[in-house]
Design goal:
There is one protein chain. By secondary structure, the protein is of the alpha+beta class. The protein has a single domain, classed as Roll (Nuclear Transport Factor 2, Chain: A), CATH 3.10.450.50. The chain is 43% helix and 39% strand. The protein is built from 3 helices and 5 strands. Strands 1, 2, 3, 4 and 5 form a 5-stranded antiparallel sheet that branches. β4 and β5 form a beta hairpin. The longest helix is centred in the first third of the chain and has 40 residues. The radius of gyration is 19 Å and the shape is globular. The N and C termini lie far apart (59 Å).
Length: 132
């Protein structure tokens, strides 16, 4: 009987641990998706709510580059690729489509790895690396 109780307790702890890890990754990926939506929707106030203060200058430069063109997110999905000690990396699939006059440019999001940090139980985008 004691062995059975011990196994149920271990299983319950393991299930809660895995659930916590899964939701954390989902929340980080959702943060990047929300950041990209704010960028494409040209909502600077919302965009700033998803970023670290140290990343604000770079994020707003990118925001400005899209501010005078029509933009649309296409088929965006994001997932965590690495996570440890309150930091995580997220890679997305899809693109930002930007219309410059009659020219359509597609910005492939899979070429970036976004770096996030968890602050006060909230994930914030703190930068990214572009693939070569």
């Amino acid at each position: 009987m004691l062995k059975k109780i011990l196994m149920v307790t271990i299983f319950t702890i393991l299930a809660f641990t895995l659930a916590a890890c899964g939701s954390s990754g989902t929340e980080a990926a959702t943060t990047v998706e929300n950041y990209l939506a704010a960028l494409a929707d040209k909502d600077d106030a919302l965009l700033v709510s998803y970023i670290c203060p140290d990343f604000e200058f770079q994020a707003l430069l990118e925001f400005d580059s899209f501010s005078i063109v029509q933009t649309e997110l296409k088929d965006v999905t994001c997932q965590v690729t690495d996570s440890q000690d309150g930091m995580t990396d997220v890679v997305c699939q899809g693109s930002i489509e930007a219309t410059y006059g009659n020219e359509l440019r597609s910005f492939d999001l899979s070429r970036r790895t976004y770096h996030l940090v968890e602050q006060n139980a909230t994930w914030l985008v703190c930068g990214y690396d572009d693939a070569n």
